[in-house]
Amino acid sequence: MDMDMDNPDSKRKAPRRKGDDRVILHFDLDCFYAQCIENANPHLKSVPLGIKQKSILATCNYVARKHGVKKLMGIQEAKRLCPDLVLADGEDLSPFRDVSKQIYSLLKSYSWNGRVERLGLDEVFLDVTDVVAYNLGLVNHHCLEESWFCLSREDPERGFAFDAREVKGCVWPPDFVSDRENEGTDSLRLRLLLGSHLAFYLRQQMEGLGYTSACGISTNKLLAKLAGDRNKPRNQTTLLSSHSPVPFLDPLPLRKIPGIGGKTITAMKSLLKTDDDDDGLTVHNARTNPAVSPFALERLLAGSGGGGEKGIGRKVWLLLHGIDGSEVKPARDVPRQIGIEDTYRGLTQLSQVRAGLVQITTSLLRRMHVDLLDDFDAVTPPISPAPTSVGKGRWLAQPKTLRLTTRPYHSPSEWDKFEYNHGRVSKSVALPRFVFDLNIEPESIAERLVEGTLMPLFHSLNPDKSKLCIGLLNVCVTNMDRAKESSRGGDIMAAFQRQREVEEIRGVAFADEPPDGEEKAEDTSDDTEVEWVEEEDEQDGVRCRLCGCVIPVFAVEAHGRWHELDEGWVEPQGG
Ligand code: DGT
Ligand code: MG
């Protein structure tokens, strides 16, 4: 029975344990940027390594962490703690994105139901309920130690041997004693046990690519993510929550709960009448306080003042009890659009604009190869030397539209006067076909695209050259034309060509394109993905295109992750 939202006493009832029948894995790569750099420079594996972005460390390897160096620490402080710290530049995110995609593709290839969701660059949720249920039926209870985990319904020999007597890796609670008598019938424990062996196998596959990780195994996303945090690095934790996850959650600081952000915590402190700092305020404090009920939280966080969505109080209250019904989202094989942009402190010369466009377009073409070619992963080393896909791969989808966006430069003193997007204009045209030619280097294609298409677009968006002072350039490809499944085995380029010809014969205009010559304000309605300024920003901060907040450069990634949480988890209230 659902809780009665209007009854403050309903918090005392045992909440319904929604989603208990699932098995969810959460993978988080260890010191991600540092591992990427180490794999490209193996001699760095044994030394303390920090990855520098501006004046802070985006992350550091675990050798450095032993010296007290921490993520997001200032460089000076880190050097003081560890004078031997080696610093590597982490400003260019492209190599990290490439590895992220490889890891994601690997995990996706083991999923049966396609529920594989990324969180940021180095975390992935997998809903393996179906794989585990299938293998539950195969367990031979008379010979658990010689079990076989089947990874394919079609090919029973594709799998791995494992010992089904024990959970693989760490368990929580650490003193968990298996109820041997009920082992055969305790299906939840056995399903989590199977999940733990699958998680271990998948972690080994990632290690084959050179990347170690931590993993949490539980019945929902919230608990899987928190369980994985218990034992890091290169380890995994199964939350054997056969009774209740409350003892696991209670000691954690409230701020550790994904979906409970800074604003929610501030509001809750007023409700709890506490001055505890964020570390002192635990889930237990909040959960057991008599003032806390779904109804009180709703009044506090939603509607007038709170500003949260309807139902937020109930959601937060459920999180405090370890209940999270949110689904692991199905994987998308191709993005809706790919855009790269850069900001400038005022470009006044056309030659500067041209150079900027060539740089952005080259990055964009590389990104298209990573995201839209089917066997890119198979042909590319995990990182460095710079991936090249010349002559390789087949297009899973081809964007049909190219969009250029520009915005004038606004100095920080003008930020109060102008909206971030003030003066932002875009124009779209059909994307020339030569960009899909895999026999030409991206740099050459970029030069041709800039000269023949993007510079003319730029001129029509910015006709008055005497006032030229460009603050932002964005090049985006969109309107994806997906290869039909049936043509994947055949000649995909020919299939795309046939499709185009049919459209042309029928007089079908490429969708999303404004009539030729028309300028339009940037339409961000389709921009559901957080699109950050990827390259170096010359100012002190960048403004988030989704919420308009100005974020220090070092916090951009975290802020992006905050928006991503927004999609699948309880609406965050800040953070
Ligand atoms: P871990 O998981 O504790 O072993 O360490 P990391 O480095 O994998 O940290 P994680 O998983 O929180 O984030 C993955 C990568 O994302 C990390 O290597 C650097 C980047 N990152 C995360 N949060 C921030 C942030 O607030 N600022 C910046 N600049 N980068 C961040
Ligand atoms: Mg990580």
From TrEMBL:
The keyword Ribosomal protein does not apply. It holds the Pfam family IMS. It comes from the Eukaryota. The keyword Isomerase does not apply. It is found in: Mitochondrion. Keywords: Mitochondrion. InterPro entries: DNA/RNA_pol_sf, DNA_pol_Y-fam_lit_finger_sf, Rev_trsase/Diguanyl_cyclase, UmuC. Residues 24-261 form the UmuC domain. Its main location: mitochondrion. It comes from Podospora bellae-mahoneyi. This is UmuC domain-containing protein.
